[in-house]
Amino acid sequence: MKIIYILTLVPFIGILVFLPFVNKIEPYVLGMPFNMFWMAMWVVLTSAILGIMYKLDPRNREGDQE
Amino acid sequence: MNIALLIILAFLLLSIFLGIRSSKGKDMDLEQWTVGGRGFGAIFVFLLMAGEIYTTFSFLGGSGWAYGKGAPALYVLIYITLSYVLSYWLLPEIWRYAKENKLMSQSDFFVNKYKSPSLGILAALVGVVSMIPVIVVQLKGLGIIVSEASYGAISMSEAVWMGAISLTIYVMISGIHGSVWTAVIKDIMMVAIIGFLGIYLPIHYFGGFQPMFEAVDAAKPGFLKFPDQGLSVSWFISTVILLVFGFYMWPQVFSAVYSARSGKAFRKTPSSALYIHSCCYSSFSLGLQLY
User: Fold this and answer.
1) pLDDT tens, B61-116?
2) Chain A residues closer than 8 Å to B233 by CB
3) Cβ contacts (< 8 Å) between A11 and chain B: which residues?
4) What's the structural domain count of chain B?
5) Is this complex scored with an ipTM above 0.90?
6) Where are the domains of chain A?
7) Number of Cβ pairs closer than 8 Å across A and B?
8) In which domain, by residue range, is B144 found?
9) Quick check: B237 and A66 CB within 8 A?
């Protein structure tokens, strides 16, 4: 249970806390300026993190009723 | 009559048809009309929420921001992403409380939970007052899109009237079922069109994403970075946090939560919703390229 609390915070830290350090155009990654790539990467990562949270959360193994 | 006009009319008729048809065979009591009898599965809930979140703003406002202000427009991408993280914890609780107390609207929640009818009235008033500018902007956006797409054959005010009347008809008849079924067409079309434009235009006009961004950077240095003042990094962080906290307070989004069959839906869908979200993201590169 604890680990999914931490996972919840990871996207906030990854995007908002790191933003001052990634606000630059070079290097381009996948054709995007670096700050844009950083955010696009975090959208995909957040999606994966939410998927992991769903799998780890014991409440989701119960029936449809919960 | 040109081909664009035919396509617009075909989609209008299709959405009215689906909207009206969606309540067929259902006993339309108040619970069916407002919250779909609390019977929507994960996919329907996802489509409904996507329908409320991705509006004409995604076409016009989002790319307008990217076109006018550059990098700060990325806030749209991020506040929606982080709101999905919040929804994992928030929405199942709201859903459960609404189901236990048979709530129908957002103000019901405040009346019940805080035992205060006046708080409920306040929430309803704030909700209605905040909705008016949103609806005006949405209808205006609809008018612009339709009049442009029909090469001016349908004027802006005609488009607004047509949209508002057909919307009123199917919502009166089918309630939330109508919203869900028109959201089905809308979501599919939007993802297809934005995905296509976001990939095709940069490749067609610039030969790829990187050449496009390099061209923008050369034409307007600093446009792709957050400026030191104004729409700066600290503006971005505070704006995103504020928007994330308020995200689910929209009356139509809040009560859409009630329509789910189980609270599990809200823990299940955000992950896949974000994949779609990254598609809509490409509309921003589109806006940038128009610069």
Assistant:
1) 777 777 777 778 788 888 888 888 888 888 888 888 888 888 888 888 889 889 98
2) 19-20, 23
3) 81-82, 85
4) 1
5) no
6) 2-57
7) 113
8) 40-289
9) no
